[in-house]
Amino acid sequence: MPDLDINILWIVLCKNSKNAQCIDSINNKIATYKIHSVDSNQITYAIAKNKPNLICFDYDFPDLPGLQLLREIRLGHPSIPAIMLTIQHNENLAVWAFRTGVRNYLVKPLKVDSIVEEISQLAIQFKPRLTKPRINFLRRSQIPKEFHFISTSLLSKRTIPAINYVQAHYQEKIIEKEVASICGMSVFTFSRIFRNEHNITFREFLIKHRIMQAKEFLHNPKITITDVAQLSGFTDASSFARLFRRYIGMAPSCYQRKHIN
Fold first, then answer.
1. Residues 6+ apart with CB under 8 A from 189
2. CATH, domain range 7-147
3. What is the pLDDT of residue 70?
4. 115-133 pLDDT tens trace
5. Segment holding 202, helix H or strand E
6. What are the tens digits of pLDDT across the range 162-184?
């Protein structure tokens, strides 16, 4: 028997089925109905039949039709809270999703316990007022142009979950073994495949991503080099300065003086 008095419609919109969130164990706790469809009429019928009080849109790499579907369902059923899951870590997409009335934007891979906790919080927070629609800006918010098409080359890359994990957690301590596990590989296999797919080692990619973020922080004239190092995920200011000089060709302080907004 489900532990929570909530009924979920889970709409799977992944191009690659391997990227879909596994929800088998979620069914043990929450009543969940899964549907694989981009047909708004089928989804509208499923909503009428199952009467969900939460809708989950599950993407890997969202494209224009998939996002248009989300917007259409939100317009037709604004009183039903919705969450969006994707392996695409993109700020523009997240902003669009929230403006569309999505309650939360979750980046996969996700542990089932995390999803259950998220759904539980929504159930507690919104159950008393499920019939009260959230004000949204659907008609004024355009879908970001970069999602008007999808690159099939992305779908073939086995290490894309690692890229998205770094983009979401670069400020934290990142262990390659754990990232390899997220991709379902051993460290040796992950290291080899990552280099083949991106022409760079995982460690080099991680450093370059952190340096790129540090450059953005350094545009603030009031921020200290130590704070930039910490915010960018480096262990200390000296190693940050050494790596920054190696990749950018100048010290962080020089870059900051040169690029102050």
1. 180
2. 3.40.50.2300
3. 94
4. 888 877 776 665 544 444 4
5. helix 202-217
6. 888 888 889 999 999 999 988 88
